[in-house]
């Protein structure tokens, strides 16, 4: 068992609490994504688990062992940095073998691991190059290979794809997932990109302001967001959040829940809004045609909302359309932005 | 006649180069060539005008024991100052590159010797080295050591000057190393820490190779400085006793302005220029190939 367990983790910088009482647990061999906007403390959590940042309070366990004050090199973790942290003066081969040489792994083992890993990620032709002569994707692969040869059970990734272009990012996402499964790594992956989180994660830990907003599978986060923040952070375009009492004539489209008050909010995913023959009248502000789908920016009274329809929409800006949604597609949030169910 | 556009381009180019070219030619190239020519002529007096004597000046230089002594001194001086000051500079830079209380004060303190004028520095050290009442002898006196004439003893005078020069240069070189260290991304150190590399291993395998461009630059400066030293000697020892602390440039100065043997000074200068040129070439062509520039 090489899962990670963080308990009541706190990081205090003078006045600022970058990480505020965070607890979560990950299973061995699973991929957990720490997701959140920049400054939410996700990288700090990762660095604390790596041992690069001191823990102000709380404990970290890896594989059942308390490693809160353990030296980084003895925690059984490897790490891929956002900047890849390749040594610019060393060849790809030397970069990959750096850790093994430090740990005095026998020469023949070094060679075998290097060759296996390099073939796995397609670097075998580039071993004698310097990092400066590699493309962004190749550098990323070198960094990955470094963690593969280290054969540490836990792999930490700090926004590893943020320096790549969109096409390469999609490729590398696949590749990292495949590697993680093939090698049975316990991976903790930091990103601000919800697509990475949704497509890669077994578990997502959504963070905001140093606190955990929600922890669950991607489907749980998407289908049952616990807060309005979670609701709007996941999904593209984000969920429409409307003040319940300002949606007139929609009473039958809002589920009845005991204790509902006027300051509650309703959330509806853009894809759950339908253009219908009858329903609420909304004015079309703009039409964003994306090919397979079209996003309509609508004005419903004084509130803005977005609707996603398949293919090309017939509506044009300035027109009025009728919209409706099913009561079961509505998410209810109370005055504090917390999810309520009936 | 009208110049074509192409020709005007050349004229503009030359006009832009002229101010710098005038300065370079009149203060660098012309003196170098004139020195070279002078070294082939005899010393002129009122009765006997200067005449061409070929390599006679070089021949008498080769027979001049003081020249060989001065050259040897300079070699020891270079060997004594350069590695020590570079090692110290790196050590100090690593120290002040870390987060620690009073960091900027320490940085400034290390740099102070560089700001001080050479003559002032020499005077301070003159006081340190003064026999019996100087700082060093006073401190040694507490431990029961007898006074020693540091600058008056041929066996201690050169080391004494070497120590002072290291003190003066290390802080200057530290600034370059500090700048270079701050350009090295901290993730490299973190990646190495995760792999279990200790500080020394990281320095040897990563930091030092990445600092090599700086080291080359510092090395060139240090070599030049070791052959350029005049002011300290002027204040401290005047090259004595018995030329034990005399260095090449000071000997040139003596030949020209104390002995008024300008052709001999010119000959020595040509040797100095030759040495410096040779070392610069070695540094650029041999060391440069082994250095990783980012």
CATH architecture of chain B: Orthogonal Bundle
Tally of contiguous helical segments of chain B: 13
Alpha-beta content class of chain B: mainly alpha
Structural class of chain A: alpha+beta
Mean pLDDT of chain A: 89
Strand content of chain B: under 5%
Tell me the radius of gyration of chain B.
Answer: 24 Å
Task: Tally the beta strands of chain A.
Answer: 19
Query: For the report, how would you describe the main beta sheet of chain B?
Result: none
Most extensive interface: A-B, 24 and 18 residues
Strand order of the largest sheet of chain A: 6-7-8-3-9-10
Number of strands of chain B: 0
Major sheet characteristics of chain A:
6 strands, mixed
Total domain modules of chain A: 2
First-residue to last-residue Cα separation of chain B:
51 Å
Keywords:
heterodimer, A: alpha+beta, OB fold (Dihydrolipoamide Acetyltransferase, E2P), 2 domains, 6-stranded mixed β-sheet, 5-stranded antiparallel β-sheet, 19 strands, B: 294 residues, mainly alpha, MetI-like fold
What would you say this structure looks like, in words?
The complex is a heterodimer of chains A (342) and B (294). By secondary structure, chain A is an alpha+beta fold. Chain A folds into 2 domains: 4-228, 3-Layer(aba) Sandwich (Rossmann fold), CATH 3.40.50.300; 237-340, OB fold (Dihydrolipoamide Acetyltransferase, E2P). Chain A has helices at 42-50, 92-102, 107-121, 136-150, 166-183, 194-200, 218-223, 228-233, and strands at residues 4-13, 16-25, 31-35, 57-62, 65-66, 77-80, 154-158, 186-191, 203-208, 211-216, 240-243, 265-268, 274-276, 280-289, 293-300, 303-310, 320-324, 331-333, 339-340. In chain A, strand 9 and strand 10 (211-216) form a beta hairpin. In chain A, 37% of the residues are buried. The mean pLDDT of chain A is 89. Helices cover 72% and strands 0% of the residues of chain B. Chain B is mostly helical and 294 residues long. In chain B, helix 7 packs antiparallel against helix 10. Chain B has helices at residues 5-38, 56-62, 65-96, 103-115, 118-129, 135-142, 157-182, 186-195, 199-210, 212-228, 231-236, 248-257, 262-287. The N and C termini of chain B lie far apart (51 Å). Chain B contains 13 helices and no strands. Chain B has a single domain, classed as MetI-like fold. Classes of the chains: A alpha+beta (342), B mainly alpha (294).
